[in-house]
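Fold it.
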Amino acid sequence: MAIEVVPAVVIEPRRPAWAEIGLAVAVGMVLADASVVVLALPDMLTALDATVTGISWVITAFNLAVALAAVPAAIVARRFGPVRIEAAGLVVFAAASAAAGLAGSLETVIAARCVQAVSGAAVVCAALELLPAVARSQEWGVKLWIGAAAIGAAVGPVIGGVLTQALSWRAVFAVQVPIAIAVLVPVISAWRVPVVPRPSTTRLRLAPNLALALVSAALTAALFLLVLMLVDGWGLDPIQAAAAVSVMPAAAILASAATRFAGRGVALSGVILVAGGLVGLAILPDSEVVWTFAPQILIGCGLALTLGPLTTAALGGPQHPAGPSR
């Protein structure tokens, strides 16, 4: 009697889902940090005895530093291993957030924001390498990175407004310290493979980097001017202003589903939507919050469509050898 031998099914071990979650939270936290301080600016303006021009550098310096640090951070992450860079970035980011929260002068806040930006660039660039490798599939990892980035950037102002009114502007920075430390645990434990340093093949891609910088500047300008108009111009308190600008993240979250078709055409459509939203904010017919909703929807949708594709293109996309480096 012949005995049929059934070959054993080899099941490759998967890393726990919280590794994906931890990295996604790290990306969202850094991208939220670009805008989380926006609704705290009016309070900071008074508390730090600053000028409108001076206080605008709290967000301008962050975005400039991120733009300058992004490509070098991607090169370093690929050369020395993304887990090392991710962990180091989170530690420095937490320290810089604490320094910003304890700062007694505008100059100290701006300096801490620059450190936040550089370490944050390391976090998001290393995560772009790690997420496709630790996720259930490379495609899902890239989608998770893009979704976390878009949602983080969009919900930042709402979170900042609530924290500012409920506690103070310092809470906006303080809350990031425990988050960064908590995320450090899954980042360190999610990757147990031999370290294989490899030279970087990343080249500076001028066009997507320039486009990303311009889109970031447009978003910064839209949020900054919208908040000044709502709080200082129309007299809304931070929580009311946070509710008003929540239209933008809601639109970004809904539109982020379209990034699965991410490509040059999608990014171009997003840029056009952001431009249209900015024009809409410039020609509001009346001083009613409802008139800001349509421009915010355009900007939010544009943000979701541009942020992921442009960032991935600017950094050259994730690269994975046969054995991923630690």
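Confidence is low (pLDDT under 50) at residues 1-14, 193-202, 319-326.
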